Amino acid sequence: MQPTTTLAIGLYLGVAAAQVNTPNDLGNEGPPPGVNITELEIIDNIYGHRNISYWLSPDGNAIVDGDVIYGTEKELLASRVNHSDPQTLQQRAFSTSATWPGGVVTWKFDSTATETQWFAQVTAAIGIWTAPAAAPYLAFRRLPNDVRDQAGVLTIKNTVCGGCNAHVGFSSTSARTMNLQPSCPGQGSCSTGTIVHELGHVLGLQHEHQRPDRDTYVTYSPENVTPACTNMPVGKTCKDGGLPAGCCAARFNFDKLLSTSFDSSGAYDTTSIMHYVRTAFAITGTQTLTGKAGVTVPTSRGSSPSSTDLLRICKLYRSQCPRAITCAAHHCPAGCSIIASCGGNRLCTSPDVLNVPPCCDAVESNELCQQARDACVPYGCGFLAG
Fold it and tell me: Where is pLDDT greater, at 336 or 383?
């Protein structure tokens, strides 16, 4: 698939435009009005084989999934699929994200002007993540503004009409960036809640609504995605194929990620700071995400990480998280499995009875495993499994 480009017409999450809903605290997690949107078919070890839409930030980084910095446009194009060249159909190892060493995020502002603009909100967002009831074992070590951009350092930039976006996780080989938009006609600036969301990416969290198992809990309605183009055929929706280039680019923001690149263990959490609201990128009066039985997708998002977010951070930074350290000291969660079958043979009814055909005696091992599991219950270590 060759890249196709269109001019964005209000394609941004939660910002007032002709066709776009305006849920609270989600504005700017997407391209500003008037930016060029390009569609591309890629294959890599994070996104798999899929179509994406991307736009370029003022510093030349390619932004995918609304607010995730993939890397430079050159890096993104290196994953482009060319059907006339079979080699491009080989999955490319692109993953550069990891946890920050020792749970310490090394960061800086790119200038005094950026510091003046964002110091209060950035430090407030950091304070939310490191609060005593959140993840106080994390640390954010600030460097002077004049330190050059470098691998392993997060640089916060003030980008007019550049949206709010960030790299996912740490990299020892490339610089990390968070772009914060102070203003943009029709879009406004990044809120503290949005910065908390972007810091979630920085720490290593992906979008919750892109979990591989999302469809078990939430119904995604692509027909309700705003086309955000002027040449959408009458009677067509974003669920249809064969649409004009550039129409419905936001539909790719709901694509699920590969199970091998996404830790989707634990409960699905629609209240996560990393989850879209029900009207994200929706045509006014409709919903793109609706909960299935027993699941509710909020209409607005808070400004703090949910309890599930904090458990995921604890799992990512288990060497620093006291709860995870306690679990490890007690050998929890139990690393055993209850034997339900014996590779096609049946369980023995008694070890003293000659069983034909052969069977396996799992009674003792199952009892020991259950005892280990029961011993771990008081420590609440189940979130570390998987």
Answer: 383
Whether 336 contacts 363, CB under 8 Å: no
The DSSP H or E segment spanning 42 is: strand 36-44
Using an 8 Å Cβ cutoff, are 28 and 181 in contact? yes
Question: Structure pTM?
Answer: 0.85
Residues 6+ apart with CB under 8 A from 199: 125, 126, 129, 166, 178
Q: How many residues appear in the chain?
A: 386
Bigger pLDDT: 1 vs 159: 159
365-369 long-range contacts (CB < 8 A, ≥24 apart) are 365/336, 365/339, 366/338, 366/339, 368/336, 369/334, 369/336, 369/337, 369/338
Q: Please, what sign has the CA dihedral across residues 52, 53, 59, 60?
A: positive
Spatial distance between the Cα atoms of 10 and 17, rounded to a whole number of angstroms: 5
Give, in degrees to the nearest 5, the angle at Cα 168 between 164 and 172.
Answer: 125
Q: Average the pLDDT over 91-99 and give the result.
A: 64
- Catalytic hit among 29, 73, 198, 208: 198
How far apart, in whole angstroms, are the C-alpha atoms of residue 56 and residue 240?
Answer: 27
Q: Do the beta carbons of residue 93 and residue 46 sit within 8 Å?
A: no
If phi > 0 it is left, if psi is from -120 to 50 it is alpha, else beta; for residue 245 that is: beta
Phi, psi torsion values for 113, nearest 5 degrees? -65, -40
What amino acid is encoded at 162 in this protein? G
Measured CA to CA, the distance from residue 110 to residue 35 in angstroms comes to 23
Decide: 94 and 45 in contact? Cβ < 8 Å.
yes
Q: Has 198 been annotated as catalytic?
A: yes
